[in-house]
Amino acid sequence: MSQTSPSRPTPPNAVWQSLRANRGMWLPILVVVGLIVVFGIASPPFLSWRNFSAITGEAATLLIASLGASFVILMGSIDLSVGAIVLLVGSVCVSLLANHDYGLMILPLAALLGAICGGVNGTICVAGRVPSFVVTLGTLSIFTGMALSILSGRAIMFDSDVLDTLSTGQLIRHLPNIALCALVLWFICVAIGIWTKFGRFALVIGGGEIVARTAGLPVGRYKIASFTFSGLMAGIAAVFAMSRLGAVGPTLGQDLLLNTIAAIVVGGTSLAGGIGGVHRTFIGVAIIALLNNGLNLLGVGPYWQMVIKGAVVVGAVLVGQDRLLSRIVK
Amino acid sequence: MTDLLRIEGVSKSFGPIPVLHDVTMAVPPRSIIGLVGENGAGKSTLFNIVTGLERADAGTMRLKGSDYRPQSFADAFARGVTRVFQEQALVANIPVYENLVLSQEHRFTRLGQFLDKRAMIAVAEKIVEDAGLDVDVRRVTSGYDFSKRQAIEIARACLAPRHLLGLEDPVVLLDEPTSALDREDETAFFDLLLRLKAQASFVFVSHRLSEVRAVSDAMHVMRDGRLSEKLDPKTTGETDIYALMVGRERSDDYYHVARQQQAVAKPMLCSVKGLKGRGFNGISFDVREGEIIGLGGLLDSGKSAFGKALAGVEPPAEGTIALAGAAARLPRIAQLIRQGVGYVPAERLVEGIIPNLSLAINLSLPSADRFSHLGVWRLRRERRAAERAVREMGIRSGSPGGPLRNLSGGNQQKVVLARWLQRNLKLLVLDNPTRGVDAGAKEEIYAHIRGLTEQGVGIVLITDELIELIGLSNRILIMQRGRVVAEIAAPVEAKPTEHDLIPHMLPSAA
Predict the structure, then answer these.
(1) Residue B398 is part of which domain span?
(2) Partner of B127 at 20 to 30 A CA spacing, among A40, A264, B107, B184?
(3) A151: buried, middle or exposed (CB in 10 Å: 19+, 13-18, 0-12)?
(4) Tens digits of per-residue pLDDT, A84-119?
C-alpha cells in the first residue's frame, strides 16, 4: 500500500527519520530474527526440521484465526469472540462428524457457521451502535456457553481421514499441510487487503471514520462485512484446530482470545485502527509461536511463559507505535 | 480607582505564526469588559495566558497592583482569576455542591482523608445564595437544564474564590457563554451577570454584538491578534464594531473576479426547495451552471448545518434538492455523490482528510465507482490520478506515498478539492474552504474554484470570511437563526461592501 519514495538520493538523516517513522514495520521483523538467534543458540534442537514442522503446525491455527480479526482491528473495532467462535464451530462440527463423515465438506460448513456468528457481532455493533468491545465480550460468553452445552462439558473424539491428512500430511517436506493452507490463506488475505475495495475501505474507516462517512462510504455495511469475515476465518480455524487434536474439548480455542489480539498488535497494527494491516499479522503470529516453542524447549514453566508473553505484547506496543498518531486510547 | 487586572503589551507566537501582538487591556473593579472578534482572532489565546494555560512571549500582567504571572490554571484560581469555558465544565453525574467545590476538596478533609460533606454543602449553599440562584445543591447536576447548569458554573467562577479562598474581587473570563442559550435563558443570564457584577469583574467574549453592547461597560475588538482601543458601547455603533472585526482590503485580483461567470443566462443546475433540518428551516434557492452562491451569516446562523444537509452528510428532515431536473426527496449522501454533488467540510482534520494515509488514498476516497471494478481496487489508475492532481492543482508534497499529515494546510485542502475533480462534478458545496490556509494557497484555491465554474460547475460557498464571500460569489444569501433573511447580488461591476452585508447579519435587522 505504501509506495517507495522517489529515486532521488536522500540525506542520511532522512533515512534515519524514515526508519524511525516506519519502525512499526521493521521492528517486529527484527524481533523475529532476534528470537530465532537467541533460541537457536540456547537450545540446539530449536533449529531442527522437526521443530520447524512443530512450530509451523502450531502457528497455523493462530494465523488463520488472526487474519480475519486483523481486518476488524484495522477498521478500528475489536473482536474478542474469535476463540469462542472457534469453540462453538468446533463443537457443532464434532457433533456433525459423529453421525456422518462429511470429508472436506466440513470446511465450508464451518466457515458458514463462523460467518453467521461474526455477522451477528457486526450487526449488533452497527445497528445497535454498541461498541464492538462490549458486543464481542457478550457474544464471547454466549458462544462459549452454547458450545459447552453442546459438548456437555466433555471432550468428544472424532474420526476423519481427510482431517488427519490435513493436520499430519506434508505436501511440501517438513511443512505440515495445515501450515501450507494457512500460508495460502494469508496470501489471499494480503491480496484482499491491498487490492480490493474491502481492504481499502477497512483501512480508510479505521483511519478516519467520520471522514469516510463524509465522503459517502457505506461504513456500517463494511463493518458488518469485516466482522463476518472475522467469523468466517475463525470457522476455518476451528476445523484446523480440531484436526490437530482429533477431538473437541471445552478448552479448544481458549488461548486464541489473547493470542490473536497479541499477534495482531505485536505485528504492528494499531488498536486505534487505520495503521498496519493483515500483512503484518504474519510477523506477529511468528513472534508468538516462536516464543511459545522456544520457551518450551528451554524448559520455562507455563506460568513464567505467560509473564514473558504479556511483557512482549506490552513492550512491542510501547516501542513500536508512534503514539502521537493515535489520538485516542481506549 | 486603580485597575484590578492590567495586561500590558502581551505578545505570543505559535512557532513562526504570531497570534497576539502587543495586547494591552485594563479591567477595572466591578466592571464588564466586552471582547469581540472572529474565530482565530486570538481571544482564546489571550484567555489562556490570563488563566495560566499558556505563557506569553512578551509583556507583563499586574493583578491588584502586584506582578501576576500564573503558571497554571490552579495558580490563576489561587489569585482569584477564573474562567467559564465555552463547553460546560461541570461533572454531570455528581451533586451540585461537589461541582461547586471541585478541585478544592482538600480544604474539606478531616482525619486526613475523609471529606467533610456537611462543610462542603454549607459553602456550596452560600455560593448559590449569594448568586441568587434557586438551586438545591444536593441534587445531581444533570438534573438541571443547560441554562441552570451554566448559571451554576458562573456562580462557581465568581464566588468560589471568596468562599473557598477568602479572596474578594475575582476576575472572571467568560468564553462565549451565550452561544447555546435561547432568548429567554439569555435574559436570565444577563440578569445574573449584572447581579454578580457587584462582587466580580468580567471579561465577556461573545459573537452576538448586541448583547455585548448591552451589558458591557467598555469593549474591545480583536482582529488578527491585535486589540482595538477601548470602545464605548453606548456611543459606538454595531456596524462600526463589526467593520473593525472583519474589515480587510479586498483585491479583485486575489479573488479572480474577472473570471466570474455571467450566470443569469446559463441553464438551471440545482434547485433547493424548502429544506429543513436541525438549525435551519425553509431554505429555497436555485443555482445556475457556473454560478457561485455565497452563504453568509453569524456562527449560529445555521449555514454550516445547511451545507451538511445539502451535501447529504446529515440528510435534511424536509424538502427537496433537484439536480439537473431529477428531484431527490430527503436525499442521502451516496445518492447525491452519484448525481455529482461534492462537499468540502469545514473541519479539515476531522471530516476532510485522513492524515495518516497517503495523498492517493485520500484522493480516491469517495470514488470507489471510478477506482474499483468488481471489488478490485485499481491501484495504478489511482496512482496516476494522484500524480495528475499533484501536477494540476500545484500540490506541494514531499513523497507521494507519504502520509498527508506532512503537507501544509493549504496543500491538504487542495487534496480535498481535487477529490471531487475525479468525478463528474455538477455542484460543489464548500464550507470555509480556506480556513487555516495561508494567503498564497488561498489564492490558488480561489483560482481552482473559478476554473470549476468555467466548466459549468455550480458552487455553494459557505464562509465566515465576508471578504471572501463578496469576492467570490455571484449572489449572496445571508442567514440568521436558520433562515435566509436577505439576498444580495454581487455582480463583477457592482460588488457590495462589508457594510452592505453586516446590517443583515445582525439580529436587530430581523
Answers:
(1) 354-423
(2) B184
(3) buried
(4) 999 999 999 999 998 888 888 999 999 999 999 999
Query: Reduced to 3 states, what is the DSSP secondary structure of residue B274?
Result: strand
As a whole number of angstroms, the distance between CA B479 and CA B297 comes to 5
Selection from B236, B309, B258 nearest residue B453 by Cα: B258
Residue numbers in A near B379 (CB within 8 A): 194-195
Chain A residue with the nearest C-alpha to that of B419: A215
Q: Are residues B372 and A197, on separate chains, in Cβ contact within 8 Å?
A: yes
Q: Which fold has domain A47-317?
A: ABC transporter involved in vitamin B12 uptake, BtuC (1.10.3470)
Interface touch A203/B357, C-beta < 8 Å: yes
Last residue of a domain, one of B401, B423, B445: B423
Interface confidence (ipTM) of the complex: 0.86
Q: Helix count (H) and strand count (E) of chain A?
A: 14, 2
Indicate whether B251 belongs to any domain. no
* Packed helices A177-195 and A161-168: angle between N→C axes, nearest 10 degrees: 80
The pLDDT tens digits for A152-191 are 989 999 988 888 888 888 888 889 999 999 999 999 999 9
Which residues lie below 8 Å from residue B384, measured CB to CB, with a gap of 6+? Answer: none
What's the DSSP call for residue B508?
G
Query: Across the interface, do B351 and A211 touch by the CB < 8 Å criterion?
Result: yes
CB interface of B with A, residues 439-498, below 8 Å = none
Residues B339, B426 contacting (CB under 8 angstroms): yes
Q: Please indicate, yes or no, whether residues B235 and B265 belong to a single structural domain of this protein.
A: no
Nearest to A196 among B357, B358, B375 (CB): B375
- All cell numbers assigned to B193: 451577570
Distance CA B66, CA B134 (A): 37
Q: Distance between CA A25 and CA B391 in Å, rounded?
A: 30
Q: Does the CA dihedral A285-A288-A289-A294 come out positive or negative?
A: positive
List phi, psi (to 5°) of B109.
-85, 145
Euclidean distance between CA atoms B463 and B301, whole angstroms? 11
All three cell numbers of B170: 475575582
CA atoms within 13 A on the CB side of A32: 19
Contact assignment for A213 to B379 by CB distance below 8 Å:
no
